[in-house]
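Hi V.,

Quick status before I head out on leave. The structure for the redesign project is tokenized and pasted below; the design run finished overnight.
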């Protein structure tokens, strides 16, 4: 297919020697890196004011010991914002497009797969760091890929990602570059073996890896310290396909000394990366940095802190003014009962204010305004509640939380959409693994154990569902507030059973009680699921709470009718309901029979003549016999 692009610039269209393609990719990445050097300076500034290690930017690490007395208000604001966004970790959920019960049930199983994917990748540890990245640098990045039989959700520092800002004018660019450091031995183990999916021969790749030079640019000085490490730069360049059916998509992994792998890239919407920006810019690829927004204010706060510290150091002691020559060089000591002589006027104690009171007020106002600018209350920054809410009801706490979070709704929505993007990356990675003859398996946590789930058991056609991330819960996060809200729902008859109340509480302290209370419902739900899947199911028995089981099964049957479940499944479900009815009837008949038997015994006892008392002589003889 002819291209309007000049193939000398379009590295994904190049053919020929491995070194030529490697030179084209490395040259492109270095050119973009030079053109966007100003952005690295911005990130360096953000990291500096936040107070982190700057060796990632080729600068020596700062000493952790600083004699200046100052408080990093910026860092506290970022950590408060991080805690607000991390209150719930969204998990993508599959929603069918006009699907029947079978498709909806499969979507539920796909939801379990997503839970397992995030759990298996230990994403709960990565999520807080991703939020820290986006708040400090403005943009965070995650890469999703399948390797060595495992699905990975890996955090990528944004300064390791490069894009052409001209190409990314309207958002997502068509080319994404990942520049990362790897240990030479790891690269050799990954790309140095015989593998038909890799470029060239194993000997050629080994030669390229072994001869790859140690990087010597600005951020590599502290990454390579002679004998202590052997890091080399690995470049990954991805060009998205022009459309879903185009064949011009390409991903190439290269070193400066040669290409390691070339892969046809069929995806037209993503390059295996998901990007998070909690506040989008009007144009371009990168988001605004909260650290840079507050950097100037933090600098002013630090300057005032240092000024006040010096003023207290020089002017904070007691000074005594005396006439010249009165005491000579004698100094006041701190012994008990000390006398000293003086002539002339008595000395005057002089205690000037180290700084003007307005200086303290100005300094405090800077810290307050930094928090207000980002919509963070001073109480939230200190993890405190207003005095009037410390003994408040759950409803009042909920209203207060809603008011606090109103400022951050856009940020929360960005986090949810970010996890939707990760969900699609998981789907794409699993589809590609399947096409390569592998099945992705994850471990999903359940109440008491871990469940193995295979992608092949939950896979759906990509056009049959969408992904969404709903808020974690409409109920409050605190136990007290959640409990009060559930009680209110029960009072208003919106919840009709204690089983539903237990399930909504979701408090570890009541897990055991909840599991017991919902056991009868769980038995019915499991049987109904098996029936609707066309699998064998256990018959109901008299050990169930038959009234609860009948009501639950009857509702499942009616819902299945509305959902258009196949006729043979409806018949099986109706048979299950009928069996419960039979057990109820059997129990009723047994109860009636027991009642009739008890009544007959009572009637016989009433009809029998009362026993006659024996004469006194007989009683005497009976007592003697005993």
């Amino acid at each position: 297919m002819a291209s309007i692009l000049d193939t000398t610039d379009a590295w994904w269209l190049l053919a020929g020697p491995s070194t030529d393609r490697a030179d084209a990719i490395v040259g492109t990445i270095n050119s973009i890196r030079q053109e966007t050097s100003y952005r690295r300076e911005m990130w360096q500034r953000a990291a500096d004011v936040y107070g982190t290690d700057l060796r990632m930017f080729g600068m020596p690490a700062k000493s952790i010991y600083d004699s200046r007395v100052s408080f990093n208000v910026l860092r506290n604001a970022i950590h408060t914002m991080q805690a607000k966004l991390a209150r719930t970790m969204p998990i993508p959920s599959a929603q069918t497009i006009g699907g029947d019960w079978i498709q909806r049930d499969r979507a539920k199983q796909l939801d379990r797969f997503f839970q397992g994917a995030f759990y298996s990748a230990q994403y709960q540890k990565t999520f807080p760091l991703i939020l820290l990245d986006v708040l400090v640098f403005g943009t965070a990045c995650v890469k999703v890929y399948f390797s060595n039989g495992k699905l990975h959700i890996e955090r990528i520092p944004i300064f390791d990602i490069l894009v052409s800002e001209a190409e990314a004018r309207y958002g997502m660019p068509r080319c994404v570059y990942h520049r990362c450091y790897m240990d030479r031995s790891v690269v050799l183990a990954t790309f140095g073996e015989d593998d038909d999916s890799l470029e060239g021969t194993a000997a050629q790749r080994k030669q390229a890896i072994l001869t790859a030079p140690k990087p010597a640019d600005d951020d590599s000085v502290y990454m390579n310290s002679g004998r202590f490490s052997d890091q080399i730069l690995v470049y990954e360049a991805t060009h998205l396909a022009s459309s879903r059916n185009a064949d011009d998509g390409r991903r190439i992994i290269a070193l400066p000394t040669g290409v390691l792998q070339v892969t046809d890239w069929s995806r037209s919407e993503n390059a295996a990366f998901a990007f998070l920006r909690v506040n989008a810019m009007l144009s371009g690829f990168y988001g605004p940095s909260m650290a840079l927004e507050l950097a100037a204010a933090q600098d002013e706060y630090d300057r005032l802190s240092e000024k006040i510290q010096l003023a207290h150091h020089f002017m904070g002691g007691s000074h005594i003014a005396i006439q010249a020559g009165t005491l000579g060089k004698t100094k006041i000591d701190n012994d008990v009962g000390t006398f000293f002589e003086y002539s002339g006027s008595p000395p005057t104690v002089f205690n000037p204010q180290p700084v003007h009171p307005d200086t303290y007020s100005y300094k405090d106002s800077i810290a307050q305004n930094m928090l207000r600018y980002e919509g963070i209350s001073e109480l939230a920054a200190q993890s405190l509640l207003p005095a009037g809410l410390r003994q408040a009801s759950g409803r009042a706490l909920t209203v207060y939380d809603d008011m606090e979070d109103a400022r951050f709704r856009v940020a929360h929505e960005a986090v949810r959409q970010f996890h939707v993007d990760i969900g699609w990356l998981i789907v794409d990675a699993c589809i590609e693994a399947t096409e390569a003859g592998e099945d992705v398996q994850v471990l999903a946590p359940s109440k008491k154990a871990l469940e193995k789930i295979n992608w092949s058991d939950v896979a759906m056609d990509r056009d049959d569902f969408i992904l969404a991330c709903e808020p974690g819960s409409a109920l409050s996060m605190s136990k007290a507030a959640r409990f009060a809200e559930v009680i209110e729902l029960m009072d208003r008859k919106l919840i009709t059973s204690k089983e539903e109340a237990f399930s909504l509480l979701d408090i570890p302290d009541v897990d055991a009680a909840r599991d017991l209370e919902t056991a009868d419902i769980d038995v019915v739900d499991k049987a109904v699921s098996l029936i609707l899947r066309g699998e064998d199911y256990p018959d109901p028995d008299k050990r169930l709470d038959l009234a609860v089981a009948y009501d639950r099964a009857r509702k499942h049957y009616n819902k299945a009718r509305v959902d258009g479940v196949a006729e043979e499944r409806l018949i099986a479900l109706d048979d299950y309901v009928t069996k419960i009815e039979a057990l109820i009837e059997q129990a009723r008949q047994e109860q009636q029979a027991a009642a009739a038997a008890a009544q007959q015994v009572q009637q016989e006892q009433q009809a029998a003549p009362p026993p006659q008392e024996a004469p006194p002589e007989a009683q005497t003889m009976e007592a003697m016999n005993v």
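Above is the designed sequence. The first helix runs from residue 18 to 35.

G. will cover questions while I'm gone.

Best,
W.
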